[in-house]
Fold this protein.
Amino acid sequence: MAKHICTTRAAFVNWLSMISGMSFRSVSYTGTQSNVEFCIANSAELTVALNVAPEYFPEGMYEVESVGGCDRTINEAQLAMALSCELGLSKAGATLGGCAALLEALAGFEFFFAKDTTCPGYSTAVVWVLVPDEEQGKDTLQSILEEHSVMCTFGGAGRELTLENAKLGAGMRKQATR
């Protein structure tokens, strides 16, 4: 296992561009925003995440523990992206949004995400999901994303992940009481 420390986000991005095919044991962030969560398994996934949503990777020190190798490359056409959030409704004792429900529903899919819980009372997440090859899997994924996200978009057939092919989801409805 190898460990690499980058003192800034820019250094982290530069280092990441020089490596390929690396699997990560962990990626951790040290900075003023202590509640940033990552679930990213390899350098290909991390490169996509940094390019598509750099705002989820704040300034600060990054430490990466890597293991083995991974020859896989991922491009936007193979991914679906979803934005999700959760807001705590203190007086109602309920939660608005479906971040936790989205991650739970995606258990059977390959996905990676970045979640920001730095602000008390709410969290936001961006989730990237590898779109299955079979049609039934694609339909199931689309149904999950439309039900649990605020917005989702699919690549595929040479399409980029853009607002032009985005759909609003139903992920801002009231969830069970806390």
